[in-house]
Structures are given as structure tokens and as C-alpha cells.
Amino acid sequence: MTGGLIAAGLGLAAVGFGARYVLRNQALIKKGMESLPVAGGFNSYYRGGFDQKMSRSEAAKILGVTPSAKPSKIKDAHKRVMIVNHPDRGGSPYLAAKINEAKDLMESSKS
């Protein structure tokens, strides 16, 4: 019984000290967050939908690669994006189809 009270008190103290640290160092934390690298340039989203006929630049944006990416980069990017968006894991079948279309377009135009 007293062990639970002691653990709860220590937990509240830790939360209090953590909150005090955050409040005192907001500028430092903000500067640190801004300096973190953003993988694939996802800090700003592409505004717009899909084109009627997919272009090479649209396919590159979907996969997160450059339009002149090598086949190995295209394959790795497709795998990475598909793992997150696969319908068997709760992703959208439409997005999975678009990801596959992007990979096919990027690979076919490289050959």
C-alpha cells in the first residue's frame, strides 16, 4: 500500500520536473527540433491530387525519389512506401495501386 503511494509520488515529481524543464527550455527545444533532418523532404506536403495520366515527376514525388533516380533507389523507395501503405496492413488499395503505378512508370522509362 505505501509502496504504491511512494511510486505515485515519484511519478508526479518526475512529471513536474519534466514540465519545468520543458517550460524553461522552450527556445532550446524548438531550435533542436528545427535542426532535425526530415526524411525524404516530408516536412511540406505536395498540394494537389493525382493527374489523369501519371507523369515521371509525379511518380518520383509519390516514391520520394528524384526523377533521375537509379533502379535500385526506385526499388528501395517502393518497398519503403509500400510497407506503410499496403492494404493488408490497413492501407488504401487505391494508394497502393498508385504506388505500384509510380514504380512501373519509373522503371519502364529508365530502360
Automatic annotation (TrEMBL):
Keyword Transmembrane helix in annotation: yes
Primary site of residence: mitochondrion
Bilayer topology annotation: Single-pass membrane protein
Matches recorded under SUPFAM superfamilies: Chaperone J-domain
UniProt keyword Membrane present: yes
Cellular component terms (Gene Ontology): PAM complex, Tim23 associated import motor
Subcellular locations according to the entry: Mitochondrion inner membrane
Domain J residue range list: 58-111
Protein name, entry field: DnaJ homolog subfamily C member 21
